[in-house]
Each structure stands twice: as structure tokens, then as C-alpha cells.
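Q: Hi! First time asking for a complex rather than a single chain. Here are the components, and I think there are two in total. Is that enough to go on?
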Amino acid sequence: MIKNISNLGDAALYCDFGTEVNKEINRNVINYFNNLRDSNFLGITNITPSYNKLVISFDLKLTSFAKLKKQIENLELKKINNSKNNLIEIPVCCAEEFALDIKRLQELLKINEAKIYEKFFSKNYYCYMTGFIAGMPFLGDMDKSLFAKRLETPRVKVPKNSIGITEQFCNIYTFESPGGWNIIGKTPVNIFDNKKNIEPNLINPGDTISFYPISKLEYEKKYE
Amino acid sequence: MKKNMNKNYFEVLRPGINSTFQDNGRNNFYHIGIPFSGAMDNRNFLLANTISNNEINNPVLEFAYQGPKLKYIGENISINVTGNVNFKIIRKKKNLEFSCYENIILENNDCLDILSTNRSVYGYLSIGGTFEVDYYLNSCSTNTKAKIGANSGEKLEKGQIIHLKNIKKILPKNKIEYLNSKIENIRIIKGPHFDYFSKNAIDSFFNDEFNVTKLSDRMGIRLKGPKISNIKNTNIKSEGLVKGVIQITADGDPIIMLSDHGTIGGYPKIGVVISADYDKLVQIPPGSKIKFKEINLKDAETIFKLYEMETQNLISNIK
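A: Yes, that's all I need. Here is the structure of the assembled complex.
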């Protein structure tokens, strides 16, 4: 349930679902997101789900904070099957040239490389949200032994398709971008296809991701 | 060569610093990480299309600081430039001067040289017709980060050809007198993390001046001034952002989200710029100083109504 709805400036609502990060709260956020997408309330221009918040922006020419707040409070939630809860398998190549921060992680976590990868690949990850840059999935939760801080100085350019980890989360850099997550490998799969006009992103909030390791040779083959 | 005779196009002799095609922007894709984009200065975008007698959402060419130099090949076409812009037309080796906000007839072989925006950032070129551009997710707005929209998601490049279509046969003579006023105080509404900052930090946020730095673009404006120190946490769990949000980075510097901003962010939000001040905010060039002033939601809504009325008045006065 939404704990509180406040205004974010004069043209957006800020719905607070709590402070913790867990699947239960996040499923609630996504459920509201799907219901609001279905509701067609006048003036909504964007809805952004995240771990435990939902931000709704609107056209101030068409509606207002007070009007939309009332509509959302009175919204009757339906069970919507939009989130298909897909299981998506993503290959990752951990060759030295792609695993930019594996050495740093070994020192930081005091576990060897093989063990880091063993733990990383042994779990499935839940997609809490996508965004920041187009299609980037925020996935969790990592094994506790792999919780690592961000880089002190973020990279100016993280290569496209890099797999990064920080704290309880991992993600995939869908585009070359600045970023401070610890890079442990690279996937040959295009996560966001900017040629596709319908569903350009492969991973959606609510999906489950399973990473599996591939060799450099397989990586190169898949890229072709 | 013969084939080209019927075609109308611009050849890009100089691309300018950040010239992109824009329209009203892209709705409803924040949840997959695609920002709104669209023309930064909405009022000048609307005026450009209205002066051209175009549909309100027709693509325009937006430029920043130094605009493009374009050679025109084709039948006579009307164009207009909006913003606070210095430009000239070179016709048969003669320099012709014109004003913004009026339709001008371009002739075959004319060269349109958009020299600079004057004490401002963005300007717009609209034509009596349509730039032939690609659309992606219902908008032609170029987003150079996700490489989507017109021009394969890229800025204009030297030597490229911009094809034009639907050239208006009756050339409109519309114009309007309009002066872009400057703004010194940016009005904001408190953000959800206002209480992350000490009383001293809040005091200096509202009483001191901030410098607009060169690290400002379509994604955001980075400010330098007194450090806004945090008493709770310099990071939050990442959550949705909107245009105008002011985040305070871990270094204590404010950064204002603009049209191409990342859709989610992990810094505390001290405030949000009111919608009515957005067009003027984006036009503040690096090197300028700004001050923030807090207002409440009700006043912000009233000010927006007035701003919108003013825009509509301007549009209806175009003849």
C-alpha cells in the first residue's frame, strides 16, 4: 500500500511505499504502476517505478496534484497480468579484459576470483526497476559475501554491456555511460534494442534473470 | 544532379555545437529509462512552429550557443528563428540581416548562418514545411545518450544533407515582437529530502548565489557555490526523477535535471523548479549566477496558469 503521496514540484506526485528494499514492497509498486497504466487518468505523462517509490509526472495544463492524488487514492486495484515474470537467461563473459574490477573485488571482499563467480552465477536475480539510462535493469539480491562499495571515483565511460555489482544489486550497462559499479564481465546480448519500436527493452521490472558464464570464444560467436 | 533539382534540402556546412531535431518530446517511457527529451525552451519551440503556420508538434532544429551554417537548395521556402539569436543570410555574397520571430524567404543557394545565441543557450529554426526525420516511440526528438530519434540519435554533422518535405506554397508572413526576459531568482518547491540538510545548508541554499558551470547540457545544469552539507545520508535508494528536480551530489553541489535527464537517481532531492520557470532556467548560460527562492504549490500552480496564458496570448498575436 502507498504510505504517503506528496508533490514532487508542481507537476509530479511522489508515492512512498516504505524505506526497505524487498520484493514484496517492489511488487506492490509495480502493481500500482500497472494499474495506473491501465487507468488512463487524464494528464499523466510518465510513471516511474523504483525499489519503493512511484513517481508520476503529469501535464499541468490538463490536471493537478490535488486531482490526481484523489484519483490514485480512490483507485481500485486489479490484478493485472502485465508483468509476465519472465525468466531471462543472460550469458556473461568474464575474460580479464571485461572484468575490469575483479582484482579490486578480490581484495575488498577477501574472496578469490573463482569463488566470486561461483556465488554470482549460483543465484537468480529479481528486476526491481529499469532506468537511469535506457533499459538498464537494477537486479537483486546478491549473496551477502559479494556486497561491495561503489568505486571511489566513478568511471567516465563504462563499456556498453558491462555487468556491474554494488551492495546488494547488480546491473547491465545498456549503453556506454559514466558509472561507479564494480565491473565483473560483459554480455554479448543487446539488452536495449534502439531499433525496435515495440518493447525495445529485454528485461522488465518483475522479471527474473539468470546469468551463466561463457568463454571468450562463445562470446565472440554470439556477438556475430 | 538533375534529380536533385526537385528536391529541397539543406547541406550542413557547419553543424554548430549541439544541434538536434526536437519536438514536443516522448511521453510514457520513463519506466524503461527513456527521458522526455523534446525542445528545451517550450515557449520558443511553440512560437517557431506557430510563426511557420505548422502543426504545433512539427520537428524543429534546436541549437545551443553556436548554431549551424546551412546551405539551402530548392524552391523558395519560409523559415524563422526564435530565441535570442544572431544570424544572417548570405545571398549572392551579400550579408543580409534579419530579426528573430519573423518569417524570412530563403532562396535557392542561400546560406543561413546561425552565428550565436545571445546571452542565452538555446534557439530554434523552423521551416514552412517539414524536416524529413525519423521517429522513434512517437517522437522525433533526438536523444544522443540512447541514440534514438531523428538523425539516428546523433547531433548534426558536417556535410550531412537534411531533406525537406511538404514545403508550403503560400509563404506565410507572420511575425511577432517578443523579448526573452531574463530570470534571476529560480522559484522552487521543497523536495522530499529537504530535511536531509542542516539549517545552515538550507539558509545558504536560499540566500547565496550559485554559478552555472560549463558542465551543463540537455541532461542537466551543474552548479557551484557554497557546499550544501548533508546531515543524514548523501545517497538514497535510487528513485524516479522529473524535469526540474535539484539533486545535491555527495560533493554538496546542486545539479538540476533537464529534459534529457537520467530517469532515476540516487542523490537526495532538495527541491524542484516550478514549471513556469523551466523555459527561462534552461536559457541561463554558463558563467551566470542564480539564486533560489522557495514558494508553495498553490502559488506555483497560479504562476503556471499565468505563464500559460501569456504563451497563448503570444500565439494568438502572431499574424
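A: Chain A touches chain B through 48 residues (CB under 8 Å). Let me know if you'd like any chain examined more closely.
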